[in-house]
């Protein structure tokens, strides 16, 4: 599935536009918003967690001190891992039948080496 670019490939306007992880998080959140899976509680959880990744990254970029930025980036990573856990649950319950798709989504959401 190809996801249309949500953040234009133009000259970055804000510091956060320069972050690849921010662009991936925005695209992942767009994909998640179109999920139609049950239970609704897991759909809601991944929707909120994916939005949290985007918003927390943006807030972290706005911080001046290194430790403060690191704190927000760590919180964003936690939300990304929460998304990965929801994808694992959805796969285990048969709501995401294609394991390779779930794995790719997990890697994107966690921004980790897979």
Architecture overview:
The protein starts with 19 loop residues before the first helix and ends with a helix. α1 runs antiparallel to α2 (40-61). The protein has a single domain (15-110), classed as Up-down Bundle (de novo design (two linked rop proteins)). It contains four helices and no strands. 66% of the residues lie in helices and 0% in strands. With 114 residues, the chain is mostly helical. The model has no long low-confidence stretch (mean pLDDT 81). The chain is elongated.
Which key features would you list for this structure?
114 residues, mainly alpha, de novo design (two linked rop proteins)
In summary, what is this structure?
By secondary structure, the protein is an all-alpha fold.
Going by CATH, the architecture would be: Up-down Bundle
**CATH secondary-structure class:** Mainly Alpha
The figure for the number of domains is 1
- Largest sheet report: none
* Name of the CATH superfamily: 23S rRNA-intervening sequence
Number of helices: 4
Order of helices and strands: HHHH
**Overall pLDDT metric:** 81
Rg for CA atoms? 14 Å
CATH-assigned fold name: de novo design (two linked rop proteins)
Distance between the termini: 19 Å
User: Quick one: overall form?
Assistant: elongated
User: What share of the residues does DSSP label as strand, in percent?
Assistant: under 5%
Helix content: 55-70%
| Strand count | 0
| Unreliable parts | none
